[in-house]
Amino acid sequence: MLPKLELVAASAEAVELAVKHQLDRVELCQDLDQGGLTPSAGFISFAVAQKIETHVLIRPRAAGFHYSESEMRIMEKDIELAGKMGVKGVVIGTLQANFDLDKVSLSRLAKAAKGLDVTCHRAFDESIDWQKSIDTLIQLGFKRILTSGFAANVNLGLNNIKQMRAYAGNQIEIMPGGGVNASNIQKILEVVEPTSIHFSGAVKTLIDEESAFSETMLKVEEKRIQRLVELVKGYYQKN
Q1: Are 164 and 149 within 8 A, CB to CB?
Q2: Residue 34 gets which letter from DSSP?
Q3: Is 196 helix (H, G, I), strand (E, B) or coil?
Q4: Cα separation of 121 and 55, whole Å?
Q5: Which long-range contacts (CB under 8 A, 24 or more apart) does 216-225 make?
Q6: Burial of 216 (0-12, 13-18, 19+ CB in 10 A)
Q7: What pLDDT, in 10s, does the model give residues 180-209?
Q8: 188: left (phi over 0), alpha (psi -120 to 50) or beta
């Protein structure tokens, strides 16, 4: 069975390409160069209007995942607003100061989600013990975990992801992400046998070169999306 393909969408163009290539869902965010931050209300509204399954990253700032009470309140409100706008799910993650998953704050955010699909992002990969973290997220009712396997990228964490899949069973979905591309997708499919895959299809690009405000940033590239889709479909046609 083909895994679901989830595109990290940090621009209107990315959302439109996800629709064009019939991807299953998008994880909506802004500021991809900072690891992704909470998208604007206008951007959420735009994505939902494209009739593609939309999951929204809830992350108020860059850097780590240990949040203040003020930041927690902001995230709770962002989740509430995203739900009212018609998204399918939210993507969250919080840690204690010692890098263990913060069960109390995760419970608060999951409660704010009120029946939306809840995914734990790669804050999971910074936690202390992946088995304990998986148990915690199952307890809290999370639907899936985005992970590079407790490593900097999926290439390095592939065997860990396989072990995580076996440990989690059908209790929670383990979704590989972080460096997924055409060069490693076949190995990911062979080793992990994932039910969904998370990728960005982005490359560092100089934007608005002639402007005084030009920037080099991560920009989605259609051929990367197209190639990955072709490879996934081709793999399952052969196997």
Answers
A1: yes
A2: G
A3: strand
A4: 12
A5: 217/32, 217/33, 218/10, 218/32, 218/33, 219/11, 219/13, 220/7, 220/9, 220/10, 220/11, 220/13, 220/14, 220/17, 222/17, 222/21, 224/181, 224/182, 225/7, 225/17, 225/18, 225/21, 225/23, 225/201
A6: exposed
A7: 999 999 999 999 999 999 999 999 999 999
A8: alpha
Q: How far is CA 86 from the centre of its chain?
A: 18
- Average per-residue pLDDT in the chain? 98
| Structure-token pair, residue 121 | 């992002």
Percent residues over pLDDT 90 in the chain? 99
Tally of helices (H runs) and strands (E runs) in the chain: 8, 10
**Two structure tokens written together for 189:** 């499919």
Taking the complete model, does pTM exceed 0.85, yes or no?
A: yes
Task: Tell me if 121 sits within 8 A of 91, measured CB to CB.
Answer: yes
